[in-house]
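Recap from last week: sequence in, structure out.
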Amino acid sequence: MDIKANDEPVNILLIEDNNMDIRMIKEIFKEFKTKTKINSITNGIEALKYLNKKEKYQNEADPDLIILDLNIPLIDGFKVLKEIKTNGKLKDLPVIILTTSHNPEDFLKACKLQANCFMIKPLCFDEYNILLHHIEKYWLNF
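Predicted structure tokens:
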């Protein structure tokens, strides 16, 4: 990802269906030194429409980073990830999997589908804060 000018936010697409997680992630990102703009989508169909600039998403900014939950409705995160990584226009977007799954098969499948990172959702705010600061450090500030 290219470093943006100091006044330009990093556009993050958060594909997550849990409203509590969405709210927490947005609150934590507000505290970062890196300016971010987070668009959240709650299901796989809308995520693919957003990424392909269909319907109401025609004028949305391209994401610089995607945070993707695997367990989302309508089209699961694996299918969204596969679409991203096999689409010539989208394949270079970094995708961080953020999931509750501890299943090694899910990790291997995400790796096979070329996820850039696989992280297990923390159970408390403080751990979420640490995890998201790691995302800022390693994915937003090259």
